[in-house]
Amino acid sequence: MDWSVVRRLWEKWASNNVGSSGQPLKAALLINYDPTGPSRLVSTIAEQEGIKADPIEISQFVSFVKRNKLQMESFFIGPNQYLATSIHESWFCARCMNSSTHAGEGAVVMQTSAFLLVGLYEGSIGSASRAMLATDQFTGQLGRRNY
């Protein structure tokens, strides 16, 4: 894997999709992830934007994904607790259960062969659609390079 390519893709994508008002995502995480690898291999945060993720919380999130009981359990990212609402083959959406914003918050989680991409957004259906499009764009770029 060419980390310089992944980093360039991330920087370009994040600058256009994460952070400031009007962007589809308020934060994003790119996590190294190999579901077939030995459990002693720790997933690490490869990139992050708009959030300062705790590595221990991220390892708990990765364990949640590996258990594949998405409909039966919730997960935490930062102070927020999420519940999966829509589950598909290589991605799922979740809504924040303790959001402090009126419109709510959510997460889109997409899996590639080497990464989990987590996109966090504020808002409801329209915001969720924009967040899905943004995360799908990045995973598509990684997929073209077999990451």
Q: Could you explain the architecture of this structure?
A:
About 35% of the residues lie in helices and about 30% in strands. With about 150 residues, the protein is an alpha+beta fold. The mean pLDDT is about 90.
Quick structural summary:
By secondary structure, the chain is an alpha+beta fold. The protein is built from 3 helices and 7 strands. The protein is 33% helix and 30% strand.
Chain-wise SSE layout:
Blueprint: H1 3-17, E1 27-32, E2 45-49, H2 55-67, E3 74-77, E4 80-87, E5 91-96, E6 105-111, E7 115-122, H3 125-144
Helix pairs in contact: 1-3
Question: Can you give keywords for this protein?
Answer:
alpha+beta, about 150 residues, seven-stranded antiparallel sheet, 3 helices
SSE topology string? HEEHEEEEEH
Sheet-strand content, in percent, reads: 25-35%
- Please summarize the sheet with the most strands: 7 strands, antiparallel
Question: What's the shape?
Answer: globular
Structural class: alpha+beta
How much helical structure, as a percent, in the residues? 25-40%
Mean pLDDT: 91
For the record, give the distance between the C-alpha atoms at the N and C termini, rounded to a whole number.
7 Å
Please report the number of helical segments: 3
Report Rg.
Answer: 14 Å
Oligomer: single chain
- Counting DSSP E segments of at least 2 residues, the number of strands comes to 7
Q: Main sheet: which strands, in order across? A: 2-1-7-6-5-4-3
Instruction: Indicate the low-confidence ranges by residue numbers.
Output: none
